[in-house]
Design brief:
The complex is a heterodimer of chains A (about 525) and B (about 300). Chain A has about 525 residues and is an alpha+beta fold. Chain A has 16 helices and 25 strands. In chain A, β23 and β24 form a beta hairpin. In chain A, α5 crosses α6 and α10 packs parallel to α11. Chain B is of the alpha/beta class and about 300 residues long. Chain B folds into 2 domains: about 110 residues, NAD(P)-binding Rossmann-like Domain (Rossmann fold); about 170 residues, 3-Layer(aba) Sandwich (Rossmann fold). Chain B has 11 helices and 14 strands. The chains are: A alpha+beta (about 525), B alpha/beta (about 300). At the A-B interface, β8, β9, α4, β11 and α8 of A face α4, α6 and α9 of B.
């Protein structure tokens, strides 16, 4: 779920006609001063981070004057909360609270409907209140086609013992909240507290919303950069990975960093899973061995070789990992030689310096394991390939044994050079990259294995030299599947005349930065 | 018998001319599944592996005869429409293969399915196999692989992971235990037929003598299976593995979620609930065939 900040959620509420406190978001102490001055009365300052319990950590402060607001903002901006650095503070008018309520919407997997919850007691500790005072909480499944009707919201509120004018004003907020959540494809939305002020107005004093990742494409207006379930803002490497995924629909590539810092002393490994369940099972196996995960990564759903290649390059941009562990369910329906070729290309370019255990069980696993065995002999690291009959536990054991044998090894991130392209090479663009053929070398080629190994059959020989058998446009649209078979064949069996360039925007700069080179 | 699909089920493939649709149609047909029609608007009149293609499901039904199940391979954004089209035409079981279908679209499909007395598997599912009878979706990837990995027998498999559906079934086959039906219920937070609905099906099925469940953290599916056992609605031996023990349990963001689900959804909750009602909960997937063999010898 892509989380929205409080200030973003409140903007949506306001647009839907729910009253929110007057205020604005400040990125500097001076901003805070100006906002407080404009409000012209005591203000509340709230750090904008995705954690609960902000009050307990000094994340919510009050100020009576603009000067005080500036000072408080100065203290709050830049502090670190969990994995967050506070970059924004919401400055709002301070409300005089008479009573507090709770309204929330979630999606219930059992009923397969949205469920709206109302509590006549709101504020902190709402979960506890729900347990100890069930009579103050009521909930209703919402018909996703009809929506929430006024009378339903009224009945819901009435059940908690509320009467009088509030029986008109509170349900109106509920209906508006449901409508805005539905319109924004929110998977959860809540106002807590919903405040009744001394002058009898209802305000959404705090609000959280999280939008369905899968529906983010319908909401450019929300400006969501990375539609992933994070409990903190995405890190730079995760952004690089996300944009790889965004540009290539073939299969899934999910990358999440699990550790803030990877120390050389700890047993960190780079993790490359395949499929949710297989990844979880494989993670359990390595964690049971006492390993720590630098990252979680999933390459599944029949990804292209180029996608797996990019995933490996990103995983290997993490310094100090001691091993590379890849394992999925073990009986994958996807054709595993694609993953094997992606790894071969990446491991060669990286001149891999840490041991790798690669469990590629499933369709064509024999071919996949052979590709690893045949083409990874001349790199410094030891790489072992396994199939469906080798359990994740066995593979985790092998990982440990290999790391012990290579005790001194911990991964050094290498600089990324630009591809060396021979002048005058024959070239064409592919879906996410470009292929270069140095035809001057083809004279000595006997096998023309590039053409025969080409699975989608897009190459042909023209006077003994490989060229496209389809139009350049078709190749770029994806007829060339970037299976990498031609490049690998030519490199190991023939003249090393083929270079496939698969750019990963931002990765070179990222590596320079972490290596301390600008 | 088996559940949901057998060799007599008449299948339609929506999105049959697309990249995935074509490849998986070949898998299904080669396996012997009775694929009678395909639908791609604008491509009516054509053929894919000898299967006639129609412009609409309605037309497919009229010209190719009644359709029991529609397997959907259209892009995620179009899944809701394709599903509603199939429901309106009278199809009673849908298999929604695509990943990344918006959750409110799934809720709408669920709403209309209920209205029509129909059911659906997925979204984000590899599908299901009744070994020796039919493949729906893409499990196995190729027909010869599906035949090699999955053998007919008496164990039902229900899994929230596609890869693990195949893996568990393959390890059962290796141990000499065939399967009645194996099903990937889908990886999303809301799916059509979830674990509890599937085990109820297995309860009714004569061929199924025991069930293996691959659960995961999140949702209330596994707890609801425990509820069924407690109520006496599922009485066959059940082996379960819950994935995600190691996943960090992040601080829950939504209070509302906590109010609705309580402590359900966590690894500990699932394991405890299942163990309390007598389910054989195993710590590793490799233990599944061993336990299954023991239960089998015990006359299960």
């Amino acid at each position: 779920m892509a989380r929205l900040y409080e200030f973003q959620s409140k903007k949506l509420l306001e647009d839907a006609g729910i009253r929110v406190p007057v205020g604005d978001v400040a990125a500097s102490p001076d901003d805070a001063f100006r906002i407080a001055e404009k409000i012209g009365k005591p203000v509340i300052l709230k750090i904008q981070v995705w954690v609960t319990g902000r009050a307990g950590i000094g994340g919510i402060q009050f100020a009576n004057t603009p000067d005080e607001a500036k000072l408080k903002a100065q203290q709050m901006l830049g502090i670190k909360v969990k994995n967050f650095v506070v970059e924004k503070v919401l400055v709002e008018e301070k409300l005089s609270i008479k009573s507090e309520y709770f309204v929330g919407l979630v999606i219930d997997d059992a009923q397969k409907t949205p469920v709206l919850i109302f509590s006549s007691v709101g504020g902190t500790g709402i979960e506890e209140i729900a347990r100890t005072h069930p009579e103050s909480v009521s909930q209703i499944p919402v018909d996703v086609v009809r929506g929430l009707k006024d009378y339903q919201a009224r009945n819901l509120v009435q059940k908690t013992g509320i009467s009088g004018k509030l029986l008109i004003s509170l349900p109106a907020v509920l209906v508006k909240l449901y409508d805005v959540a539905r319109k924004s494809d929110a998977r959860s939305a809540e106002i807590n507290p919903l405040v009744l002020t001394e002058d009898n107005r209802l305000y959404a004093a705090d609000c959280h919303m999280a939008v369905d990742d899968y529906a983010v494409y319908r909401h450019p207006e929300l400006g969501i950069d990375v539609a992933r379930e994070f409990d903190r803002p995405p890190m730079p490497l995760e952004k690089i990975a996300y944009h790889v995924e965004e540009k290539d629909y073939r299969g899934t590539f999910y990358f999440l960093q699990m550790a803030e810092e990877i120390s050389r002393e700890d047993k960190f490994i780079g993790f490359n899973g395949a499929g949710g369940g297989g990844s979880m099972m494989s993670m359990d196996a390595v964690l049971n061995k006492g390993f720590k995960l630098a990252n979680y990564c999933d390459t599944s759903g029949n990804p292209s070789a180029s996608k797996v290649y990019r995933a490996a390059k990103i995983i290997l941009s993490q310094p100090n990992i001691k091993g590379y562990f890849a394992s999925g369910s073990g009986v994958a329906s996807q054709e595993q030689y694609h993953s094997a070729r992606g790894l071969v290309k990446a491991f060669h370019e990286e001149d891999l310096d840490i041991p790798a255990v690669i469990r590629l069980g499933g369709n064509f696993e024999e071919e996949a394991i052979m590709i690893l065995a045949d083409y990874l002999q001349d790199i410094p690291a030891q790489v072992e390939g396994y199939g469906r009959d080798d359990s994740p536990e066995f593979c985790a054991n092998r990982m440990e044994e290999l790391i012990i044998e290579n005790e001194s090894t911990s991964h050094k991130v290498k600089p990324m050079g630009d591809p060396v392209v021979p002048e005058g090479a024959y070239a064409f663009e592919t879906f996410t990259g470009k292929i270069f053929f140095d035809h001057s070398r083809c004279a000595n080629c006997e096998s023309h294995g590039c053409v025969s190994s080409c699975k989608p059959d897009v190459l042909k020989l023209n006077e003994g030299k490989p060229v496209l058998s389809i139009s350049e446009e078709e190749a770029k649209k994806g007829k060339c599947t970037e299976c990498l078979a031609c490049e690998i064949f030519c490199r190991f069996h023939e003249q090393d005349a083929i270079t496939i360039h698969l750019p990963i925007p931002g990765l070179k700069e990222y590596r320079n930065k972490i290596r301390g080179v600008d | 018998m088996s559940i949901l699909a057998d060799e007599k089920s008449r299948i339609c493939v929506q999105g049959i001319t697309g990249r995935e649709g074509m490849v998986r149609t070949r898998l299904m047909k080669d396996y012997g599944t009775l694929v009678v029609a395909g639908v791609t608007p604008g491509k009516g009149g054509g053929e894919v592996y000898g299967i006639p293609v129609f412009d609409s499901l309605q037309e497919a039904w009229e010209k190719a005869g009644p359709i029991d199940i529609s397997v959907i391979f259209v892009p995620a954004a179009l899944v809701k429409n394709a599903a509603l089209e199939a429901l309106d035409a009278g199809v009673k079981l849908l298999v929604l293969v695509p990943d990344r279908v918006p959750i409110f679209d799934v809720l709408e499909v669920s709403h209309f399915a209920k209205e029509k007395g129909a059911r659906f598997v997925g979204p984000n599912t590899l599908g299901l196999v009744s070994p020796g009878k039919a493949v729906l979706g893409m499990i196995g990837g190729r027909a010869e692989r599906a035949r090699e990995w999955f053998h007919p027998g008496h164990v039902g498999v229900s899994s929230r992971s596609g890869g693990m559906t195949s893996a568990i079934s393959y390890y059962l086959t290796e141990a000499g235990l065939g399967q009645s039906t194996i099903i990937h219920v889908g990886g999303d937070a809301v799916v059509g037929l979830s674990h509890p609905e599937i085990v109820e099906q297995f309860q009714q099925d004569d061929q199924t003598e025991m069930v293996v469940l691959f659960g995961e953290i999140g949702t209330t599916q596994e707890e609801r299976v425990a509820d069924l056992i407690e109520q006496g609605k599922f009485t066959k031996p059940l082996i379960a593995y819950i994935g995600g023990k190691a996943a960090k349990s992040g601080t829950r963001f939504s209070h509302a979620g906590a109010i609705v689900e309580g402590t359900r959804g966590s690894y500990d909750s699932k394991v405890k609930r299942l163990k309390d009602v007598g389910v054989h909960v195993v710590d590793s997937v490799s233990a599944i065939p061993q336990v299954a063999l023991k239960l089998n010898k015990g006359g299960a």
